[in-house]
Amino acid sequence: MDSFGSGLVFPLTTLYVVHVLGRDLTWAGTVLSLHSLLATVMVGIGGRLADRLGRKPLLLTSLVSSGVVSFLIGLWPVATAYAVLMVLFGMTVSLYRPASQALVSDLAPGRERQVFSLLYMALNLGVALGAAAGGSLVAAWSYRAIYWADALTFFLSAVLVAWGVPDTFRKRLLTRRRHGAALPGTGNAAGNSPVTSLGEQRRTTGRTAPTGGPERVREPATAPAFGAVGQRGPRSRRLDDLYQSGLLSVVILGLASLGLWFVYAQLQTVLPVTMSGLGFSEAAYGMLWSLNAILVVVLTPVLSTLADRRGWSLSGLLQSSAVVHAAGFAILLLAGDRPVYGWFVLAIVVITVGEVLQAISFSATVARIAPEDLRGTYQGLAGMLTSLGWVAGPLLGGAIADAWGTTALWAVTVVVPLCALLGYRMADAVGTTRSGAPRHASMKA
Questions:
Q1: pLDDT, tens digit, 9 for 90 and up, residues 349-392
Q2: Among the four residues 188, 239, 256, 406, which has the most C-beta atoms within 10 Å?
Q3: What is the CB-side half-sphere exposure of residue 265 using CA atoms within 13 A?
Q4: Pairwise CA distance, residues 308 & 319, whole Å
Q5: Residue 27 and residue 305: Cα distance in Å, rounded?
Q6: CATH 1.20.1250.20: does it fit domain 1-188?
Q7: Poorest-confidence range of 132-146, 208-222, 319-333?
Q8: Are 367 and 375 in contact (CB under 8 A)?
Q9: How far apart are CA 336 and CA 32, in angstroms?
Q10: Comparing 87 with 445, which gets the higher pLDDT?
């Protein structure tokens, strides 16, 4: 529901700044950059808070506070107030993401990829419907109405979460604090545990509690540490902790996905300028995003079902995503200065396939790696790293295009996904050696 509200607002944000607030595009871009930067930072903080406070309190805090801020933006159409509120909005709305991702792992262990696929499809459907309704809402009332409608969707979502979403993690968290014990499966109160790698699927071997209680997970034998305990210094021990906890794999995954977000950002910054220079209209460019939204809604359940039926691994999906991204941007590179619309359509189709492959596997992979009481922290860290690609993408992409031309930029967008492929393979290798699993093993999707 809140994604519908986002679809109402964000496509019209720049127009609101120009037509209602009377500011230019540079001012709008600066505010949105600050919004994105603070949102990126708060994703990491939100993940940690979700582990310390529970998922549901953070979800409700994010939804209610975001609704209040969105209402105030519509109520107070003053440029200075808008800038402050938009930065604040970036901070409040970003708290939702890691908490919701951790909640998925709590409620559907072993089925994370399927649930994340459904959520991604619903998110894109909501944004598409909101974008379609936003213009009509402005035409019928005013720009203020879209912010008030957005606030309403946040409040309604908060009611649904409060009444319909359980927080099993918080219950276990409070019990653990009362008794000073660790959560099941985390190894100790600090949450350090051997966790299954990218190359190993968790298997249930029995129960440690009555029916309905937590299941006992059989972990593979861990690989030898970086050095003998008696021979390791503080730095070596820290590296070994990152290695054994799976955090190193998450960092590598996040950095690899950062590259995919970097190239994807060029579709919203450099591509419209390129197409305009070739004589294509704004409507022609907008149709590409409509195509993208339709394909996401159609392809998400299709690819998710194929992954189930054919037993595709999460690591395989991620690596395929990188290859498909590289192929899509290679089409843009080959298109060059040819004013042929079909090249751009084909590129968007291929890139969208890569987008869906990454979306249905990345968060699920992080969820499988994370210890139970650190799911929010791991998801927050992964989300923060990937979001940096979105923040840096417009700046670096624009600088490359200005200095060496768009052909050089499209060449970079082909190379970067291939680097991401190496990153995904490295994360898989690190996880596999840590778990001691055979190299050919796979974590089932």
A1: 999 999 999 999 998 899 888 887 788 889 889 988 998 888 88
A2: 256
A3: 23
A4: 17
A5: 45
A6: yes
A7: 208-222
A8: yes
A9: 30
A10: 87
- Evaluate if residue 193 carries a pLDDT over 70: no
pTM across the whole model: 0.71
DSSP 359-383: HTTHHHHHHHHS-GGGHHHHHHHHH
Query: What pLDDT does residue 25 have?
Result: 64
Residue with tokens 């419907």: 129
CATH class of segment(s) 232-445 = mainly alpha
What is the rounded CA–CA span in Å between residue 237 and residue 291?
50
From CA 420, how far away is CA 425, in angstroms rounded?
9
Contact assessment for residue 336 and residue 407, using Cβ atoms and an 8 Å cutoff: yes
> Per the structure block, which two tokens stand in for 291?
């195509």
Q: State both tokens at 414.
A: 């082909």
Say if residue 382 is exposed, middle or buried (CB neighbours under 10 Å; 0-12, 13-18, 19+): buried
Dump pLDDT digits (tens) for 77-119: 899 999 999 999 989 998 988 888 888 878 877 777 777 777 7
- Cα(359)–Cα(130) distance, rounded to whole angstroms? 21
Q: 17 and 23 in contact (C-beta within 8 Å)?
A: yes
In the predicted model, is pLDDT for residue 331 greater than 60? yes
**Is the predicted pLDDT of residue 434 greater than 90, yes or no?**
no
Domains 1-188 and 232-445 share a fold: yes
Q: Which two tokens stand for residue 394?
A: 């417009």
Predicted local distance difference test score (pLDDT) of residue 205: 35
